[in-house]
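Record type: monomer structure entry
Structure origin: computed from sequence
Chain ID: A
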Amino acid sequence: MIENKNKYTTMIKTEAKRLGFSSCGISKATFLETEAPRLERWLNNQMHGEMSYMENHFDKRLDPRLLVEGAKSVVSLTLNYYPEERQVDDNYKISKYAYGEDYHYVIKDKLKELLAFINDKIGAVDGRVFVDSAPVLDKAWAAKSGLGWVGKNNNLINRKSGSFFFIAELIIDLELEEDGPTTDHCGTCTKCIDACPTGAIESAHIVNGSKCISYLTIELKDDIPEEFSGKLDNWMFGCDVCQDVCPWNRFSSPHKEARFIPNNELIQFSKREWKELTKETFNEIFKKSAIKRAKYEGLLRNIQFLGE
């Protein structure tokens, strides 16, 4: 039994690497006791702003066995999105994760391949794939699986690759060899806290989502509050400030995923061209992009709020 567990674990990790995932770690599917009070405090303090969906499925967020009946293992995976090309300087900025095709589709395709591989090579295994679209605390599971530690900005950080990667999960009813957590290597560094333009990182591990530039430019559907005028640092979709200043991201290297290569116009557009953006051009440039989530009207709202 143990021999099979080790064999299956190795097979899954090898296939995950072949599919292009940066890393793969495994945890036992159990209740997340440590995260429960943290999540409850965060919600009670209204730090989720208008993201009311965060209040839903509280128990499911903490127990994967409520998502997949008989779940035994949580397979956590990361996928690098650090780009080789960047937007031209002095520009309205887009978070690097949104440069290419919407990651939900890219990762879900890979996860489905991985699950099909498991069923083909190991046998009938019940499971579900998760990419940031269901009540799963992905960073908690990835940390529990040894893929990194949760930094003071609440991003998962890896000593060898920084934090510019997506996190996804495969929750299955197959018992696998567990990986233990790694240690925290933030030390006394407070660069992410000090650099946050809106003060959203109120203290280590306490991120007020309702102040975060990513929330203000993507999740918030109403007008951006005037209190944030002059504080958005030219971000029109998302924000990378706390990652850009993180010392561990000096180890970030360009991704090798063809579907994450950006549309050339996204890279080359100037402020003037963004201001003159038409709905037709928006639909063409961001045809398969995560930026469609903000919608054309939302992106224009952000640009107008930034001014200049």
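Annotation 1: The chain has a mean pLDDT of 91.
Annotation 2: The radius of gyration is 20 Å.
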